[in-house]
Amino acid sequence: MDKKYGVYICEGCGIGDSLDVAALKAVADDEGLTAKTHPIMCGPDGVAFLQKEIADGVNTLILCACSRRVHYDTFRFDGCIIDRVNLREGVVWSHPRDKYPALTEEEKGDEDNYDRVQMMAEDYIRMGMARVEKVKLPEPYVLDNISRKILVIGGGITGMSAALDAANAGFQVTVVEKENQLGGAALTWRSQLPVADPYDQLIPPMVQKKIEAVKANANITVKTGTVVARLAGQPGEFTVTFKKPGEKIDFDVPYPLPPEMQVDESGKELDAETLHAKYLEYNEGRKDILTLDPNGELYGAVVLAAGWRPAKLKGDEYAHLGYGAIPDVITNADFEALAKKGRILRPSDGKEAKSVVFVQSPGKGEDDSDFDYAGAVTSLVALKQAKYVREDYADGKAFIFYQHMRTPGLSENFYKSIQQDPGIFMTKGNVLSVTKSGNALVVEASDTLLGEQLKVKADLVVLAAGMVPATKDDPVVNMAYRQGPAFRDNDLFNGYCDSNFICFPYETQRTGIYAAGAVRRSMTTDEAMEDAAGAALKAIQCIESSNRGVAVHPRSGDMTFPDFFFQRCTQCKRCTEECPFGALDDDAKGTPKPNPTRCRRCGTCMGACPERIIGFADYNIDSIGSMVKAIKVPSEDDYSEPPMRILGLVCENDAYPTLDIAALNRIGYSADVRLIPVRCLGSVNVIWIKDALSQGMDGVFLMGCKHGDDYQCHFVKGSELASIRMKKIGDALASLALEMERVAQFDIAIDEYDKAPQLINEFVESIEALGPNPFKGF
Fold this sequence. Notes:
- The chain is α/β, with parallel strands linked by helices.
- The chain has 21 helices and 29 strands.
- The chain has 6 domains: 137 residues, Rossmann fold, CATH 3.40.50; 204 residues, FAD/NAD(P)-binding domain, CATH 3.50.50.60; 35 residues, no CATH class; 147 residues, FAD/NAD(P)-binding domain (3-Layer(bba) Sandwich), CATH 3.50.50; 53 residues, Alpha-Beta Plaits; 160 residues, 3-Layer(aba) Sandwich (Rossmann fold), CATH 3.40.50.
- The strands form 8 sheets. Strands 13-19-14-15-16-17-18 form a 7-stranded mixed beta sheet. It has a 5-stranded parallel beta sheet with strand order 7-6-5-11-21, with helices on one face. Strands 2-1-3-4 form a 4-stranded parallel beta sheet, with helices on both faces.
- α2 packs parallel to α6, α6 packs antiparallel against α16 and α7 packs parallel to α8.
């Protein structure tokens, strides 16, 4: 498009009172542009004013007003390039004049009396003008032949619920179940936890009604005794190959490298390039993993509801509890199977089990430890199974020893109803041992509430084995991706299939595949059905978004996708290896093969590329680099004691909103800092840091989402990848004869609005202690 520029400065919300607007207009004049002002840009008159400007031919607008995070729809003008220069939160609210007083006319003539806030605002306008020059209007990537069918993997309560919800919304759904019948784990239940008010009584399992509803729905196709052998392609056009469990077919996905092939002779992990080569060599002779199955079925999105399996307890690990040695010490899953058959009888001799002890923790002395994968559901199951004992025997007794009794939400009503049963005893206690005494079992425990030692005689002891997600050590989906058939970095979530549990439930690390139920976390039937509805809605949203050529999440509605200048590609594979979502495959030479509807638009590939050949229409190496270069760096040529200049590359997901919130609370930070929002710290290319320092800026910091144990990164790996790259920037700084301390990275949560300005100020102080960048003025 031929760009016609317009610079528009709002004078409302204190901007006009705090800043010299005439001087701001002069900044635009210096670039050959004319700036116009309006008293309240977001008001009806201001919007009408902008609409008239657009009608008169302006199609590239630099709006100097409030943060880009507010009035998004107000300042959305289709067909126009918009840059939001943040003068309100980013300048005047975070830098009040009582702390940074404006200059008098006399002071303006003094070269060392600089108006820091005014300089800040002028820089931001320069940066906005520089950016719009380097970006283009995005055009959507639209699939030629999109599928509107939804695949549901798993035929349990969660899968059937998701299928019914999607089918009732008018979508064609296929349910795939590896067993020969629908129902999943619910088929083994004797009773079910309550799902409706008053949530205080057990109910008959509802699984048969679900099965009947699925079979009766004309929009649902059921494939039992079937697994997904291979899933290739991208959202809107997934190509799925089915097979029978254990069957070998031509289009099986490649095998992952065995652990022993992932290390060298000394046991050191191989680098990414060597791993990739070994991976291809290991699978040589198989069908190319990027080849689509010509007989495969097309689907637009996938709901993964593969469920869970009971945790397997190792006898040696739980020998003190008698597990594996005493036949009447069993898991909760074993107990449910006994109860399903009828009256509860001891496995050892078939006699009545009237006294049952339920053990909720391993009993190893830790006050804060339950069995692995145990949680709220395990607590509720213990309550349910204790009720079985009382249902079967009028004189039956159930004892529950727990470290944590978790009954969230309305499940508390069920807990209270169990408390009223005189035959059910509950105490916070640590089970020390289970031994056999004649025909009975003796359970020794310490009551951690009263500090007493207890001994209970029991007919049966039940250990609370947790719910292990089906995705633990099993790819389930079998994806034909270069990064392997499973979800990447599955250990990050302890086997749970989740992309960002805090911010985006249902999402997985594979765009278009949505997790629901126990593969996401352990949950009750009630929670699983609600979860299924959420995943079904996300699958529908994915199909509709792909049909419009926009991102589904987290940059919802984003029309951009990565563009490659392949002539300069060196096939280094960094982009394909570092993409957290497997959006990029590569050919035999290592040349990237984009799958645009898989892309989350985080820009991690752009930050990874050493040749800088990857970019987006409105976010690229040149656009951010030009903003960096537009910042005016005062030198001794301008002032005898020039002010510092610090660049902050801040993540738009947590860091930038945090600073906006700080501004709302009038919590400020150094006016020598210039902030540039980035899509994710993973998108930060080190060339921006090098450019900033080589042009004389005194320091650079990155601020983004938390990673590691307190993981919160919206794009899973972005902050972590940035921290790895920052460690490698030392060589570049050394080549410039600059200190390592001039570059730093900070993690921040969105609610830490008081901490973010403090981190910035402390960094500025450390830079001031180092002194000016020696490149200043060159």
